[in-house]
Amino acid sequence: MTKPKIEVYGLSSCAGDQLMILNCEDEILEITSKVDISSFIMAQTGNVETEIDIAFVEGAVSTERDLRYLKDIRKRAVILVAIGTCATWGGIYSCKNDIPREKLLKEVYGEKGQEYFDSIPAQPLKNFVKVDLSLPGCPIEKRWLLRVFASFLHGDLLEVPNFALCSECKMMEYECLLVERGMFCLGPVTVGGCKARCPGYNIPCIGCHGPVDEANYASEVQVLLEKGYSLEDIKRKIGLFVSNPDLKQIQFKKEEQKNG
After folding, report:
1. Which of 98, 113, 182, 201 could form a disulfide with 105 if both were Cys (CB 3.0 to 4.6 A apart)?
2. Domain holding 94: CATH number?
3. What is the DSSP string of 196-242?
């Protein structure tokens, strides 16, 4: 039986999600025995980019080069998996910044910065190509990565978690850091899957997995306002990992405050 052909790529990123694949020390030999990894620059030499069954792509699209590379990968891959929050939501690369891009390029690289660097506003893969499966996380969770591999080998397409982190906090019987302690926790609007790791160490969730579907930002913002946080601080922190989050409800709350 022919092994599935797999390739792993990194666009604008820290490479943490690719490292997570390599960190599967106990499982990596079994994985490589069942798939043909034709290209994985971080892990091997002699890479060949060809027609593939599955492409795992890390990182946001933040340059024209990234975009050309992504479109080429999409053409060659039957299935494309976005791994990590940068690839899924834009990540840190897309966080709110009021400084114009042209000014940033000039400040960092000098007068010819814009000429030498094809920088564009960082965005997730789904804004440019079809993504068959998104596996968020900063970095991705090892157990969900292994489940993805297992599902593909069985001919299935895994459904990843789509419930709020608060559900996992409740299951682990953790005290609510937002309601009980007034800490800036984004658990109610963040997708779970990490077993509420940070709240388990009394560290509030910063939203690194990205928003859960139909995230109720209005209720989250109302609670945070009542806890004494400013609206601008709330908007900034919610937009830390997500490219252009839907903050219309936040704007509604702001207008409501003005009129109230």
Report:
1. 113
2. 3.40.50.700
3. SHHHHTT-----TT-BPTT--HHHHHHHHHHTT--HHHHHHHHTSSB
